Each structure stands twice: as structure tokens, then as C-alpha cells.
Amino acid sequence: MEMIHKKLLAEWNKEPKILTAVSSALKQAKEVMENPETLRGLSSAALHTIHRDVYEIDALYAVLQSDLKAFREAISVVMNFYDCYRSNEESPNKFLMIGLNLMYFLTTNQHAQFHMLLEQIDQNVQQNNPYITTPVKLEQSLMEGVYNKVVLTEKNIPSPYYALFIRISMDTVRDEIASCIECSFKKVSQKDAARLLLFNSVGEVVSFAKKRCWKSAGNTYIFEQGLSSPTPKEQLDTERIAKQTIFYAKQLEMIV
């Protein structure tokens, strides 16, 4: 088991990682761990380290694969391991794992679970550990609708493993903004659409517009419903949100 553990660590620590090799080593390690005979003779400290490393790598590998289902299962195992098998030596990846779990809850709209987990974290850690402050600030930005800060978060993530969850958050934000645009405007230029949707280029908005099936006339997108929405209250709300988004987009341009 110790040799298999070392092989897994060796593959995982390679840069760039060869994911097929990591997958093979990870699969082998998990299979061997299921056989009690292979673990006999190992000290409790060695067993703790081996299990911890395998579980953590499994979760991080799922992130690299952009596999949210696998991540959900793997991170649950990691969290249970931390709770049930405490050690004098805290895992150096503990707050990275907790932070990624918070990011997962946030991007999958599991706000109750997000706050339940957050309440278990010491206030000092919440305020000073970048792995924890990042999801906390991201949630605040999303709740307040300050979407330019979501973009800035993407540029200042504490670990590359956060990138997947930031991208998911940005996709959600852009879908919400797009819905507001569709209800609030009769037409909008590609340039303005790119600014509203917090894209860096017109090319990005063109690809996005195709996915939304937006109709275009030259460099302008046309929305059939536009401001003719039959419900005045909804029209007012979406127009306000759209104007707010324009304001934040201009703020972003000034900051960047």
C-alpha cells in the first residue's frame, strides 16, 4: 500500500499533470484500500496519511475533470474523514478543501448548506484565510448583484482549483443578465451587450448570443418582447436591474 501511495503522490505532484496516469494511480489506490489485508502492519499515522491523501486527491482530480457529481461525492468523503478521524497534524489542504466545498454549495445554490458549513469555521479563519474569504466575498457580491466583483474574484482566486466554480458563477450571472436584457430592451448593439454581460470582447458575446438564440441584424440584437412586457411590475424590475448592470459594467471598466 505504501508503494501505491507513493506512486499516486508522484503522479499527482507532476507538473503538468498527466490526468490519465493520475486516474490510473487513484483507481489502484482506492481498490487496494478496500482490502483490509493490504493495510495490515501499517501504523495508525500512516493509515491516516494514506487515506487523507487519496481522498483529497480524489476531490481535486474531480475538479480538474470539471465533474461536479464526482466532486460532490469525493468532497463529502473528505469532510466526513476530517470530522471522524482527527489527527494531531492538521491537513495542509484542509481549508482548501473546505473552501472548495463552500464554492460548490454556492455555485449549486445550496445556500443553507453553505451557511451551515460557514458557521463551523472560526471567525478569524473566515476573515483571514483566502480559501474561505473568497467564497464568502463571492456570495456577498452575488447577493448584492455587484457582478463586477465576481469578475474581479476570477482574477484573484487563491487556487487554480477555484476557477471551475468561478466560471459556473459567471455563467449563472450572465444568464440572469441576459434574461434582463431580453425583457428590458427592444434592441442592443453587440458592443453594449458585451459590456452588459461583462465580456472582454465582442467575439465572446457572439458565441453567447448564439446559445441564447438571439436574433441579430448586423451588429445589433433584436428582442421581440423588449419593453412591451404585459406585466408593468416585471418590466420595471428588469429595467432597473439592466440599468444597474450597466453601472457596474462601467465601474468594471474603470477598475480594470
UniProtKB/TrEMBL annotation:
Q: Which Pfam families match?
A: CSN8_PSD8_EIF3K
Q: Does the UniProt entry include the keyword Cell wall biogenesis/degradation?
A: no
Q: Where is the CSN8/PSMD8/EIF3K domain?
A: 93-225
Q: Does the keyword Membrane apply?
A: no
Gene3D superfamilies, per database record: 1.25.40.990
User: What are the GO cellular component annotations?
Assistant: cytosol; nucleus; proteasome regulatory particle, lid subcomplex
Protein name stated in the entry: CSN8_PSD8_EIF3K domain-containing protein
Its source organism is Loa loa
What high-level taxonomic lineage is stated for the organism?
Eukaryota, Metazoa, Ecdysozoa, Nematoda, Chromadorea
